[in-house]
Design a protein that fits this description.
mainly alpha, Four Helix Bundle (Hemerythrin (Met), subunit A)
Length: about 190
């Protein structure tokens, strides 16, 4: 899976590639944010006046796990987009083919909505860890933590934008309502603290 995640990341960096877009880029932003949170927690270990070492180790481990999940989530987002493209290429020459194509499109779009939603939830997890670290970290890493906050919010907002664009193509109102409600809750987490 790491090779697929790396391929997706490299596609994000390729301005000539049209297959990997904002969902993948947003997940990668979240992965970078989580990696920075993990680093700041490690840099806070053993510093005078700080929390216990177990406090920082736990944050570092959780952030590292979120970073891996988001990095892999970027690859999954890219694959979900490819599945939509493949579904639209299915034959619609016969009534049976048309029905099969429509079902495949709906299935692919639903997956393409759920994956960035999972990635958005992971970005919210990164923001939660950031909140836990606030005013309890090695101040020499303040700019790293600030960058992590920017990246996590960008990742969260971008993932949610990808969910919303896919919701427009879903035909099942109950599913749209459920996913929209989750987006609404997550959207509040993307608003910077005042």
């Amino acid at each position: 899976m790491i090779d697929e995640a790396l391929a997706a990341f490299l596609k994000v960096l390729d301005p000539a590639d049209n297959s990997t877009g904002g969902g993948t880029a947003s997940a990668v932003a979240g992965a970078m944010a989580a990696a920075l949170v993990s680093m700041v927690a490690r840099l806070s270990l053993g510093k005078p006046g700080m929390e216990s070492e177990s406090f920082y180790r736990e944050i570092s481990l959780q952030a590292a796990d979120l970073s891996r999940r988001l990095y892999q989530g970027g690859a999954a987002d890219s694959q979900a987009f490819e599945a939509i493209r493949a579904a639209y290429k299915l034959s619609k020459a016969t009534p049976g083919g048309k029905e099969k194509r429509l079902a495949a499109i709906q299935e692919a779009v639903l997956k393409a909505a759920r994956i960035p939603l999972e990635n958005a939830e992971a970005c919210r997890g990164v923001l939660s860890l950031l909140g836990t670290l606030r005013r309890r970290f090695n101040e020499s890493a303040a700019s790293d933590l600030e960058c992590a906050a920017y990246l996590a919010r960008a990742g969260l907002s971008g993932c949610l934008a990808n969910v919303e664009i896919n919701l427009r193509s879903l035909k099942e109102p109950g599913v749209v309502a459920e996913l929209s409600a989750r987006v609404h809750v997550l959207r509040k987490a993307a608003i910077p603290e005042g």
